[in-house]
From TrEMBL:
PROSITE patterns: RIBUL_P_3_EPIMER_1, RIBUL_P_3_EPIMER_2. The gene is rpe. A divalent metal cation binds at residues 32, 34, 65, 174. This is Ribulose-phosphate 3-epimerase. Its EC number is 5.1.3.1. It comes from Clostridium thermobutyricum.
Length: 216
């Protein structure tokens, strides 16, 4: 069964704690936290203090997606704030192997994110070390974008690497996921689907259940 990771980027920030409490009662297994710096991506969201502030509202897995330059400089901040899993962009870190190794040395799961234009082949040498690969199915920086169709091919490529080198790897998809396409990405090999608008437009609990049901 697919896991849903609601993206708090689509939540109402004026009542973020309240909405995290709702997610805590849902069938979602992860909470996806998009950290943007206004440099690597053209938007700014929040940092480690906000992650720390919302940690008290749930025990669900905090899936922290660092859309920032030089992410290795900030790993300790997010670990101390309560991150359970940290993903960093291949394109943003010149020393990606070192960063992944450091995250894992702290007892936190680690993953690499690929932008739409980044080929899956860059993962070949490091995939054995990873807990997750996150495939961006939109260009990062803004919510509400449409799903990029060739992402399906990338999912299948990562699935081949997973089957060959790292059977425990989690494959996550982020961008434009909705009730119409979630089954297709699941059948291509996705374990975790990040969803923003598809979760927050309407009844949060009902939307999460419906997304899961669509994959059965």
């Amino acid at each position: 069964m697919i896991s849903i990771a609601p993206s708090i980027l689509s939540s109402d920030f004026s009542k973020l704690g309240e909405e995290i409490s709702i997610l805590d009662k849902s069938k979602a297994e992860y909470i996806h936290i998009d950290v943007m710096d206004g440099s690597f991506v053209p938007n700014i969201t929040f940092g480690a203090p906000v992650v720390k502030a919302i940690r008290k509202y749930t025990d669900k897995t905090f899936d922290v997606h660092l859309m920032i330059d030089n992410p290795g400089n900030f790993i300790d901040d997010f670990i101390n704030a309560g991150a359970d899993l940290i993903t960093v962009h291949y394109e943003a870190d010149r020393h990606i192997d070192r960063t992944i190794g450091y995250i894992k040395s702290k007892g936190v799961k680690a993953g690499i994110v690929l932008n739409p234009g980044t080929p899956v082949s860059v993962l070949k040498n490091i995939i054995k070390k990873l807990d997750m690969v996150l495939i961006m199915s939109v260009n990062p920086g803004f919510g509400g974008q449409s799903f990029i169709d060739y992402s399906i091919d990338k999912i299948k490529e990562v699935k081949e690497l997973k089957d060959k080198f790292n059977p425990n790897l989690l494959i996550e998809i982020d961008g434009g996921i909705n009730k119409e396409n979630i089954k297709e990405v699941y059948e291509a090999g996705v374990d975790i689907a990040v969803a923003g608008s598809a979760v927050y437009n309407g009844d949060i609990l009902k939307n999460i259940e419906e997304l899961i049901e669509r994959t059965k």
